[in-house]
Design goal:
By secondary structure, the chain is mainly alpha-helical. The protein has a single domain (2-283), classed as Orthogonal Bundle (ABC transporter involved in vitamin B12 uptake, BtuC), CATH 1.10.3470. The chain contains 11 helices and 2 strands, in the order H-H-H-H-E-E-H-H-H-H-H-H-H. It has helices at residues 7-38, 45-63, 67-90, 98-120, 146-168, 170-180, 182-187, 192-214, 226-239, 244-264, 272-283, and strands at 136-138, 143-145. Strands 1-2 form a two-stranded antiparallel ribbon. Helix 2 packs across helix 3 (67-90) and helix 9 packs across helix 10 (244-264). The chain is globular and about 65 Å long. The termini are far apart. 44% of the residues are buried.
Amino acid sequence: MIFDIPASVLFGQLTLGLINGAFYALLSLGLAIIFGLLKVINFAHGAQYMLGAFVALLLLRHFGIDYWTALLLVPVLVGLFGAALERFLLRPIANENHLYSLLLTFGLALIIQGLFTNLYGTSGNSYPIPEVFRGALNLGFMYLPTYRAWVVVAALVACFLAWFVIEKTRLGSYLRAGTENPKLMQGFGINMPFLVTMTYGFGVALAAFAGVLAAPLYSVSPGMGANLLIVVFAVVVIGGMGSIVGAVITGLAMGLIEGLTKVFYPQGASTVIFLVMALVLLIKPHGLFGKEP
C-alpha cells in the first residue's frame, strides 16, 4: 500500500532522483544549446559525456592530474575537440538537410565508442572520490554520500552559469540574433562562423563536465553514455527542443518522477520518462517550454 511506505524510503528515492535529474539537466542543457542555436541534433553527446569521464581517468592514471584540475581542464580539452568537429565536419554540411548532421554525429558516436572499446574493453574502471567528499551527510531520513550532494550543487551552478551567458550577456545576444539572421550579424562585423564553432564546443564541454562529475560516481566505461543519451533526448523533447530553461527544469523534474516511480511502481521506473514524453507530445507537440516554429 502507498501509505505503508516508510518516509525514509520515499525521501531517499526522491533524493537519488534529484541526483539523476542533475545529470539529466546538465546533459539536456548541452543538447538544447547545440540544437537551439545551431539546429544540430547532436547524437554524439553521449559519447562526448563518456569522453569527459575517460579523459579525467587517463589524466589521473598517466599524469597524476587530480579531480579538481580535471574538472576545469577536461571540459576545455573535450570542448576544443568538439569545436574541431564542428569546424571540419559539421560546417561543410551546415546548409544541408538536418538529417545529414544527425547521421554524421551518430556515426561519430559509434566511432568514439568503438575506439575506446577496442583500447580499454567493455569492463568499467573506477575513479577515486576526492578525499574532501568521502563520508556522508545525515539528512535525518537517510545518509547522503557527500559526493552525491556535491554533484547536485555543481550541476545546478553549471546550468545557471550557462543560462546566464546565453540569456543575459552580450555574447549570448549575438548568438541568439545570429541564429535568426546570420547574414545581418555578419554585416555588423560579428564573426558568426567562429561563434557557431565556440557554441558547439561549449555544448560539448558541458557534456564533458558531466562526465567528470560522473566518473567517481559511476563506472567509467565506453558504453556509459549510450543508454543515458536516449533518456536525455526524451527530456529535451519534453522540455521543448532548444529550450534552455525547459531542459534544466524538465531534467530535474524527470529525475524526481523517476525516483517516485521506483517507490510506487519499480517495474515502470525505466519507462516512465518515455511515457511522459508520449503524453506531452500528444498534448503539446512542441514540448512544455518549446515555441512553435
